[in-house]
Design goal:
The chain is mainly α. The chain is built from four helices and no strands. Helix 1 packs antiparallel against helix 2 (about 45-55) and helix 2 packs antiparallel against helix 4 (about 65-90). The radius of gyration is 15 Å and the shape is elongated. The termini are far apart. The relative contact order is 0.17.
Amino acid sequence: MGIGTRASVWVYCFEILFPFLWITGCVVAGILPGLCLVAWSAVVTALKNARMMIGVSRNGLDSISRLDEYTSKLQLQFSVFLIIGFVGTAILF
């Protein structure tokens, strides 16, 4: 039993964009160092992936044939930028 195309689009977009908001909230709350905001550098890729997923309702499932590859690249970018933020903080402070 699937959750449907529309719900899948919303869940994917939430899962892709929420980490950026979470990092920002953690920086504001003082849980993470401010340099971790460098992870926002990957938001362009996240928006591109979200737009591709939103296109499923118009273009069908063929439009996301490489979305898994793009999602893994986004996760790598986000993780590397976050690590750079932690390492940069350790070096600078």
